[in-house]
Design brief:
240 residues, 9 strands, 33% strand, SIMPL domain-containing protein
Length: 240
Amino acid sequence: MLKSIAAAGALLLLPMAVQASGLPDYPFIHVSGMGTAVAMPDLGQIDFEIAAFDADPAVAVGVVEARATEIRAAMAQAGVPLEDVQIRDVRKDFRKQDPAGASAPVQYDIRAGVRINVRNLAQWRAAATPLLTMPNLDGFMIVFDTTQREKIEMELAGDAVKIARRKAEGIAAGLGRKLGAASAVSTGDLKNLTRAMGLAPGEAGSHSSSSQKIGTERADLLTVMSLKFAQPVDVIYRLK
């Protein structure tokens, strides 16, 4: 079993003399561990655009401004502070025309970006509900996060190290050796080492998620999603 594990490259014991550049020159075990957790968020953010089309750009701008006023009023009613409602990047473009209707008036495309930060998720439903039916809104993206992110990531790093050590202890015992001190620890792949061994599977492993934006349909705006965290570590232990 141990030989098959070593051949697969999941856990590796190397001899004392190593020719490859960058590898330790003492017997060692290279192991990895992954700490994972699921947590509920306490912060939320909604990004979207106000969009209006018209042959008269002034009319389209007026529609965008009217929607912006409605959004601010709705957020104030939901208890979201005005400084957490950002309306920015007003842009003017031309809407693509069907070649068959080339003689039709040019349609101006006026857009403004909106970002709403909800720092108290008890307000999330009240803030998101008015957006479900408001016209001229599209391109919704949502992201959730937690104020406990740093604490969670630190705890997961500790869990991952403990998992890695248990793996290393099991391998050392199977080899009739004792585990020595950790010589190197990385929160992620030890890339130079794994590539020198020919074990690099591709890009580095996954880390904590949830600060990435997620595209969503309007009907899903009311759903608050849990956060999934994953913290990998790579560790090199000396063998006694």
